Automatic annotation (TrEMBL), chain A:
Protein name: Uncharacterized protein
Organism lineage string: Bacteria, Pseudomonadati, Bacteroidota, Cytophagia, Cytophagales
Protein origin, superkingdom: Bacteria
Organism: Thermoflexibacter ruber
From TrEMBL, chain B:
GO biological process: proteolysis
Species: Thermoflexibacter ruber
Pfam families reported in the protein's UniProt record: Peptidase_C14
One GO MF term attached to the UniProt entry: cysteine-type endopeptidase activity
Designated name of the protein: Caspase domain-containing protein
SUPFAM superfamilies documented for this protein: Caspase-like
Coiled coil: none
Gene3D superfamilies reported for this sequence: 3.40.50.1460
Disordered as annotated region, ranges: 186-205
Segments forming domain Peptidase C14 caspase: 226-431
Amino acid sequence: MKFLSLLLIIPFMSSKQPQKEHLIFLQYAHFIKDAKQTTLFLIEDTPTQPKEQVASKKYCLDYEILKTVALTEAVADSLKEIVLEEKNYIAEAQKSCPMVAKYAITFKKKNNQSFTLILSSAPCEKVTVSCSKKDFKKSYFDLKEKNEILVFIEKLVME
Amino acid sequence: MSKLYLYFIAIQRIVCLILFFCSIANQTQAQSLYEIVFEVGNISYKGFLVYFNEEEAYMRIGYYDNKKYNVVEVKYKSIIEKSGDYNTFVMIGSNPTYITKVDRGVTYNPDHFIWVWNDKYQHNEPYVTDDPHFHEDNITLAKSYREITIKDLTESYLRQFFGSGEEQYKSLLRMGTVVSGSTTATQANTNQNTNNGTNTNTQSNTTNATLHLVLAINTEIPDIGRSCSVDQKSMETEFKEISKAIGMPFKKYVVVGEEFTKANLEKTLANLKVGSNDVVIFYYSGHGFRWSDQTDSYPQLDMRYSEYTKLSANTSLSLSAVYHAITGKNARLNLIMGDCCNSDIGRNQFTNSSFMVSRSFQGAEVEKLKKLFLQSNGNLMFSGSSPGEYAWCNINGGFFTLSFLQALKEEIGFMRNESPSWERIVQNTKKNTQYKINNCDGCQRQTPISYMTINQK
């Protein structure tokens, strides 16, 4: 049974609400929306400690990069839109299964304005969100079962 | 600070106000009791709410109508919902039944209660309406809302809502007397031993038995570590209080923090020395999964505290292996529980290494605890999820763990007349878990599975 209509009729709620922040990216969502550079990587499933990393390999937030997937401007724009869609994330609860990384995406607006997402698809769909801004704490979220983000990425990788 | 975190904090605050989480997340009574006072059309109503779980609650409502005092009982089911920034906890009333005599044809429209909050707004009192359509004009704010304490359970207070011959009245009065009186839980235990037929056996069980609690909790892992810590605290408090109440020595073994490794858990289990009359409880809260080629229905426990450690057979072990390791020690009663996912990791096992062959317990009736922990023998393996499924958690802990504690408390509460049974605890844990999942936006099916060979005297 749904009671969401209640939210419309309880008087105190009719007062004007402040502009809503993004559920995941907070006030920095524009780093993604206006990103000049969007990059998709296939990565190792487990990060490598910085002291164990080797110069001949490239890393994204300690995860070894296995492959870089080229994105056209149109594809990058679609990816931004999908990543910003709040419906792809679960806010109420988390799954008790391990993060096994598969993909990384970086969105760069300027050097000090960027987001990096590390995504896991199995055993469950999870994402770690890191931002260049110090006041944005590294965060862990679960993705909905039929989220568009992994579907979109997996289609790109298959092509 | 992330918005999600703020959201959780807001929930955490409000849960202290609303009964839903008060009853399941904290170490409280087996059934939670609340008083709500509200006014509709110049009539003042006082409600006495007995809350067992989301699906089972009732309220006795007393009020004067034309100088005549009436009491009506209304059944309740509850739902928690989120919409945008707002959260609601709604209790839907149904099946009103008059307890006092009323004239023929007199009916009572069941009241519905609504708590609303977000990270900026919270209100202790709920909104109330008897309008099934929840029309704005018919919704008012309740006058007061509070948790009823044991000290409130006096004859004069309870008689506002119950007849003196009613079973609920007797149970509530007993609850108030046993807990707030000079009799401590242990004394009550002794007294009850003296007064029942199972005296000798029970006393013998108490003196010879120890309750061993083994906790393997992934408190360090960044995504769910906080939730796992809550689980640890809940389970530890629960079983410590149970052992205290029934006079059983309590031994705790904890594998947490940076000690949370497969080797440490194996060592802890190997060193566990148990007697033939002892009770062993193993509880795991952390990440879980299953290998793609795995045939065992029970999950693998992920024993890594750092995300920099690679997942392999060397960093995980199965709940079944823990079960065999513990039951091989031949204690009287073994409960092996894992609150974790059981979803396919998408790859086969790398190697085949083998595992070694808050409050006081005021709402629990000691005699019922004894039946469960002293007069039972056998084994229970209980996983929070079926093969292919996720186990869900939030800041209040794992849904399976919360449901287990809820089911256990219901079973040992003063207001349950049946003899307590492990079978019912298992069934109610499964039912409660599914109920929480059904009311969680974005959560998917989670069906706990169990294997039980417990006999109860």
